[in-house]
Amino acid sequence: MAGPITAGVDGTDESLAALDWAAREALRRGLPLRLLQVWRFAPHEGLEGADAETQSGWVAHALAEVAEGVRARYPALDVRADAREGEAADTLVEAAAGSELLVLGSRGYGPVVGFLLGSVGQRVIAGAGRPVVLVRSGDRPAGEAAGREVVVGQQGDPDDSLDALRFAFATAAARGATVRAVRAWSLPPVFAYSPASLKLLDEAGGLEPYESRALTDALRPFRAEFPEVPVVEHVELGSAGQVLLSVASRAQLMVVGRRASRTAVGARIGSVAHGVLHHAECPVAVVPHG
């Protein structure tokens, strides 16, 4: 059984935009919406009686008001509110495990700066085992208008993008949208050629036809599973991040896969996901592989 769509709430404009996005998506998918507010006890010397229990009551009251506002705007939606004390990133990652997807707000300052992905957001995206959607503070329902596509990146072998493609097709089916599947390719260095790779390229008729066939093969099972979803196959020479951003203006949602890696300075989410998150104007879904 599918879990709820969970929206992180902290009272900021960007979290409220994410909450509205999550509410609309929950209605489309027929899922409950869970509002999650993570808080930490902070002693206030100037406020008498501001102990942990009192602060917990403040948080619960504020969250209840937000939940009532959501119910008023979306009366058909099953809305649940949950306040938890703890460390933000770890608590959100834990909540994502039982959710269909996790939706967070991200402050944006226009198409050049795009998303500002703080340390909490990066840790959540790197650690979550479920898709995480980042929504900018300026997001509006008009961005989901007919004609705007769900854009998804595909790379490598068919198995390498299975989860991202499945998420993109399911989302497009719920929205009545078109999927634009993007595969970027680049010229390999001379030393990368081998007799086996040259044979494959000769059989395909060249590099671009080979890449086109690889994309078609990756999409075949999803075309069969979601026959009602129109599909545009987009193969272009260039880096994956650049090619995805070149079509972002027509996207109502951008979907990228990620393989998180651990380094001495913390978790990294990959250059393609990082670039799209920082520069796309539309909401971005980051889907973990496997």
Automatic annotation (TrEMBL):
Belongs to the universal stress protein A family. This is Universal stress protein. Signal peptide: none annotated. Residues 3-136, 150-288 form the UspA domain. It comes from the Bacteria. PANTHER family: ADENINE NUCLEOTIDE ALPHA HYDROLASES-LIKE SUPERFAMILY PROTEIN. It comes from Streptomyces doudnae. It holds the Pfam family Usp.
